[in-house]
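Holo model, S-adenosylmethionine. Inputs:
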Amino acid sequence: MNETTRNAGGTDVSSLNSDALQQLLGQLVTDLGAAVNGALVVLGDRLGIYATLAEKGPATSQELAAKTGLDERQLREWLSAQAASGYITYDAAQATFSLTPEQAAIFADPNSPVAMTGGFYSVSAVYHDEPMIAESFRTGSGVPWGAHHDCLFCGTERFFRPGYEANLCSNWIPALEGVHDQLTSGITVADLGCGHGASTLIMAKAFPNSKFCGFDVHPPSIAAAKGHAKDQGVGNVDFQIATAKNFPGRGYGFATIFDALHDMGDPVGAATQIRRSLDPNGTFMIVEPLAGDSLAENLNPVGRVYYGFSTMVCTPSSLSQEVGLALGAQAGEKRLKAVLSEAGFTRVRRATETPFNMILEAHP
Ligand SMILES: C[S@@+](CC[C@H](N)C(=O)[O-])C[C@H]1O[C@@H](n2cnc3c(N)ncnc32)[C@H](O)[C@@H]1O
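Output:
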């Protein structure tokens, strides 16, 4: 053994497989860059730098500083980091920065179907909340959704809304048996765990003859949803604070849960209450993260994102509530169908899917 290669912690680097070590270190350099530049994405979004670049670019750092009113030296450092990330484009000959159409679609337009900046607000919340999650690991007590940093709530809305805008009314609802026609004629709809009401409002605007009720356990989210409804002038929608197990009403023609069933402590109890509240011809649509049934199937980039948020948010959220089933954000179709079956749903099928979501349809 070469004593010079062994550090104080006892690691003998000379005994390691050099190729495997270099490959992992290479990945870690990339990941470290991504992890720190996530904060810069939030910064660029918050300060309107991406939007100004999209509108006024190509521009030098001086021109951009004049256009944004920001400090040139700090802005130049941000531009350099973003160019090194490949998030913006640098022209060395002109010393200008710009966005390609693809970069603009991802970073500069919050309504684009490929907008990604919202996800980075949620990432900043989980870094902020890490000590709270560490304590939950020690105690097993979980962490309620509402205990997180505010960035999680707007981040979730901003990350999910573009996908709902792109898919909900054009792909997901048409994939269900008869629901599009029922919504067009006019039915009552319950959207459970609605958060800021992005999904509820999209449906309410598309189906003016139907009435939509959004429910969520988190009071500030319901307040935000009500604010959005008012700002957007949507009248056929109501938002109330309620859990998915105690929400009011009967005879709903359609019930939905978007990316929230696995956050609930008692998803079987919630689905049972939903079944009881549905009209006999009603439909329950469950939008959940896309996942295979086994861990091995989910060891991929999408699974990595979901397991990360599930560790920091979804699993502690479920554990903080009664029952604490803790499905996790990668539960998979088999596990979700078992929950729905236990709740008394007899006909359940996967209606459709996207690269991020699976859409299940259940009938009483
Ligand atoms: C990941 S967010 C999804 C929000 C929204 N559906 C969306 O797609 O933007 C999960 C939501 O579930 C809510 N939630 C968690 N447990 C709940 C429960 N037992 N009953 C009702 N809502 C719940 C949280 O407050 C949070 O707003």
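Strands lie at 89-91, 96-98, 188-192, 211-216, 237-241, 252-258, 278-289, 347-353, 357-363. The pocket of S-adenosylmethionine is lined by residues 145, 156-157, 160, 192-195, 198-199, 216-218, 221, 243-244, 258-260, 263-264, 317, 321 (CB under 6 Å).
Archived with the compound record.
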